[in-house]
Amino acid sequence: MPELTSVQRHALRARAHTLHPVVTIAGNGLGAGVIAELERSIQAHELIKVRIQGAERARRAALLAEVCEALEAAPVQHIGNILIIWRPRKEKPEAKKTAAAPRKMTTAKSAATFAATARRAARARAVTGQKHGKARHNQPR
Questions:
Q1: Contact by Cβ (8 Å): 6, 34
Q2: Would residue 92 count as lying in a domain?
Q3: What is the pLDDT of residues 1-16, one digit of tens each?
């Protein structure tokens, strides 16, 4: 479990203020499914809020310790029914790269390519004095 200084804890509490709880632990307690969801959430966000329903203060403190131990995370704050937990992201192991089959060529353009083409066409029309691809007949002399 990573240890946090009071300055780090204060900064994390400030970041967590606007977060919403991502997981709710209810009457069934801390099952394998809840642990898996907590793991996914903390890997994605690093800092998460967890809501606990229907437990007394001592039970909530015990759940905080269990969750932090299971996730190898640091407890940031326990206030009311809300737990705030932090863990730095774990690096995902690189998958072995194998010789992939060559990709099929497609004719579809990406959105960025399409937008760049439209900008170039608009600039070209502005330089030549055309509007929407048609020649301007009423040009001032």
A1: no
A2: no
A3: 778 999 999 999 999 9
